[in-house]
Design goal:
The chain contains 11 helices and 13 strands. It is α/β, with parallel strands linked by helices and 344 residues long.
């Protein structure tokens, strides 16, 4: 089973980059006169092989296809909403359009800055609080992809014992947990499921601390879990490395983590990944602005639209025909409305 997710480039951690093309308006062949896409990263920044890198892949694809520029800016440790406001204002003042905040943490800043720049289209990923004519709320049914991860985990485990590790204890990540548990219990109502959140707040490093992910995975493996699903951003690299070292399965998140170069030495133990097409959302918003028909309001990706899915890149997963069949059936049942996935 596949979902149309934009492939990640080999993105390393780094500073902000600016590849603006001053002639972009002419080159698109449209009335677009902006400088390109402005992208402001979430905690963890570029190089997380997951959420932020997926957004960067969408920026790169749009730049290439529409011959426009782009600027992507890293977050700072311990920053305030005022820092985010300044970052977004800097992009908007410089002529970037659209300007996209990667992550729900940008909600207050997007609301403030969008009101100051009504002619610029703003996008925010993973939040739908901001209601304005020039704001697109780019959100997903994460619980649906997580349900498929739960089915895969329950069909694969040899011990009827699996685990979930969330980065931060917030409603967004609760959706991942809820879907995962429901999917697993649809296969085996008595399955044992470990569940743990790394931190209470994002500022404590729940999405940006591989060591925390590694420790949590180690604990779950010691209790007997042999398949662990993470929704923890950069911290998930620690989950995956620990699972591989103990020769148990890991399930990745947001991007197809089996395909990531930085995780290549662990890939034999990455069963699959619950996909969220963040790159596609960035690309689609850029396209709408370049075409002169900017998206606004809530734009939600689900299994039916290909906005979420489950990656099947690992040949070992594909060889488990009964697991693949169960996941495929679950996907179709959700699309057909036979299964409604929990969000809490």
């Amino acid at each position: 089973m596949t979902v149309a997710v934009i492939a990640l480039a080999a993105a390393g951690c780094g500073k902000s980059s600016d590849e603006a093309n001053s002639d972009s308006g002419k080159k698109t062949g449209s009335g677009y006169s902006g400088k390109g896409i402005g992208l402001a990263y979430d905690i963890g920044g570029k190089g997380d092989q997951s959420f932020n890198d997926a957004a960067y892949a969408g920026l790169q694809k749009a730049q290439k296809e529409f011959k426009i520029g782009g600027s992507d800016i890293e977050p700072q440790d311990g920053e305030s909403d005022a820092d985010k406001v300044q970052r977004l204002e800097q992009l908007a003042k410089s002529g970037y359009n659209p300007v996209i905040g990667v992550g729900f943490v940008y909600a207050p800043a997007i609301k403030e800055v969008a009101a100051k720049f009504p002619k610029v289209t703003f996008g925010i990923i993973d939040d739908e609080q901001d209601k304005a004519a020039n704001v697109a709320d780019l959100v997903f049914h994460e619980e649906q992809a997580s349900y498929l991860a739960g089915v895969a985990a329950a069909k694969t485990t040899k011990k009827n014992h699996i685990g979930f590790i969330g980065g931060v204890d917030i409603p967004l990540i609760h959706k991942f947990e809820a879907g995962f548990k429901q999917g697993a219990r649809s296969v085996n109502p008595k399955i044992k499921i470990e569940s743990q959140y790394l931190t209470e707040t994002a500022q404590e490093g729940g999405f940006s601390s591989p060591d925390k992910g590694k420790d949590a995975a180690s604990g779950q493996i010691e209790t007997g879990a042999d398949v662990i699903y993470h929704a923890a951003g950069l911290s998930g690299q620690g989950v995956i490395s620990e699972a591989a070292s103990k020769k148990v399965w890991a399930i990745g998140v947001d991007s197809d983590q089996y395909q990531q170069k930085a995780l290549a030495k662990y890939k034999d133990y990455i069963l699959g990944s619950a996909l969220k097409n963040v790159g596609g959302a960035v690309y689609d918003l850029a396209k709408s602005v370049v075409d002169g028909k900017p998206l606004s309001g809530v734009v939600r990706g689900d299994l039916k639209s290909g906005g979420v899915g489950f990656a099947d890149s690992n040949p070992k997963y594909k060889a488990m025909t009964d697991v693949v069949a169960a996941v495929d059936k679950a996907k179709q049942d959700i699309i057909d409305g036979k299964v409604t996935v929990d969000t809490k």
